[in-house]
Amino acid sequence: xxxxxxxxxxxxxxxxxxxxxxxxxxxxxxxxxxxxxxxxxxxxxxxxxxxxxxxxxxxxxxxxxxxxxxxxxxxxxxxxxxxxxxxxxxxxxxxxxxxxxxxxxxxxxxxxxxxxxxxxxxxxxxxxxxxxxxxxxxxxxxxxxxxxxxxxxxxxxxxxxxxxxxxxxxxxxxxxxxxxxxxxxxxxxxxxxxxxxxxxxxxxxxxxxxxxxxxxxxxxxxxxxxxxxxxxxxxxxxxxxxxxxxxxxxxxxxxxxxxxxxxxxxxxxxxxxxxxxxxxxxxxxxxxxxxxxxxxxxxxxxxxxxxxxxxxxxxxxxxxxxxxxxxxxxxxxxx
Amino acid sequence: xxxxxxxxxxxxxxxxxxxxxxxxxxxxxxxxxxxxxxxxxxxxxxxxxxxxxxxxxxxxxxxxxxxxxxxxxxxxxxxxxxxxxxxxxxxxxxxxxxxxxxxxxxxxxxxxxxxxxxxxxxxxxxxxxxxxxxxxxxxxxxxxxxxxxxxxxxxxxxxxxxxxxxxxxxxxxxxxxxxxxxxxxxxxxxxxxxxxxxxxxxxxxxxxxxxxxxxxxxxxxxxxxxxxxxxxxxxxxxxxxxxxxxxxxxxxxxxxxxxxxxxxxxxxxxxxxxxxxxxxxxxxxxxxxxxxxxxxxxxxxxxxxxxxxxxxxxxxxxxxxxxxxxxxxxxxxxx
DNA sequence: ATGAAAGCGCTAACAG
DNA sequence: CTGTTAGCGCTTTCAT
Lengths: 335, 335
Description:
Chain A has 13 helices and 10 strands.
């Protein structure tokens, strides 16, 4: 049924040698390795990760904590992490805080901090004092992807800058009446991202000498429906903007749909730009500032894996690259 | 640093008692439990899942295998599974076959079958002889969610029936020129779902005495872009359908966008219905046949957890419920 | 290049 | 209600 032991007796070798052969450590005769190999899968040997983990203290597993999972960005990051982990023979344990029905604390203590993972990736999460302390107590390497997180190194784009660029792009096109569909605190994400992007927008406006219209910064909740509803409301306001900068592509799509529903055209009547590089962008013709979450995830996984293997910890990351993708959703303001 | 042992000496109890107290087994004096508890977190005790796993043979983990992750359905199912698992104190290991860069076999042997999970959920996957054999060799309970999978019990909607109903709905509205945007074999999914849905469509047409137009069953690849492109092509054909039944909501959205881009209206010029119950549906006004993947995932998790706990295995599942959601994307054919 | 022996940290009978 | 005694299956010095 199970066991390195069986292989040992079947081959007439010792457990140690079999163990070494199976992990192809040096100093095992090639012939021996062969024999062990053959016997192993002849017996249908399946290693016990628990036993190996107990013995080595390593679980060959990294945890990924997401605030919610049904968001384009998180999913792509997950893909990037997964691919890299898989390549290294590591498994990925997913912790979805949203699934915990508000019981974030329990997930934290009972699951995440359990000695089950060798490293941890936190997605767009900000932590309170207590949580941060807990995290620091953990021995393993960790990092945040997505938003800056006070006290923890983080990997991601420069949110403020990209928002500034996006707004500036609209400004340069001639727009002066620019709205920003952003978010507040994402469901449990407690992330700094929405704020950073809003600031970037505000700063670009300020640098252009334009006073922001308070009603023009609705909360799109970082969802398609939220973007749509925000735009619909904007369209009914006493004065309507000629351009919209959405803090995420999904919200931008929602806004575009709302604009079209209202019988207006993009970009002739209203221009729209987003941030992300969502797959739907091409079809929607959305002009956007694309980031590469898959690469970010892969990068994170590589760094973590390296550190688990003993490499010195990287204290911080340079900002992840952003690519401007010009399509057809933005143009000069009407008339 | 670690260990139940430390707590034992610190409290003057034995390892066993501490172990019992920590897991609140019966037959431990309440006072003892208290004492152990306090000492445990005073010492910052973190249990070793590897040790527990080795001792019990249980890992408190279930694996979920997805063909690709960036699909609405899989993500929702994942949420359902995760929530239920979390509640039971189980962890979820994610296996993304797409991430394996075609190396499906390796993921299979090196990871999935490793003795690391207590149960397995397979999403919309069909297996070849060899894989099925391997799966049967595993001791733990498993099931497929999504598509029927020969040889393995499966939980999901009745794909043929829902497709039949969707087509019938269009037929009853008076349409006779109905196209079907479906899929072939999803990227590595190797699923039976697309075929079943196509059959349902064909059968409904046949029952209505309508001969299908071969060109009207394009492959939308189950993606938004695929749905869009398929529809765009349909629109350029020598003859254009008055209604489209998309095998998934995402493809339906793509089709709607293509229709609008062509200057046509939904449903006045062309009706569209989908399958799924995607969150975007409300905004798009899509009439669809909604399923509840979160519930399916939760159900699966509950069943598996029960079986891990010793309950007898459920041999099969009744089809998951489908709810007809009538919105505004379908109406009678023009003129 | 291979073997022997001692654990890794916890659970599970079996006593008491 | 609590303690003792064995392991779970693998890795890892230390010998040989």
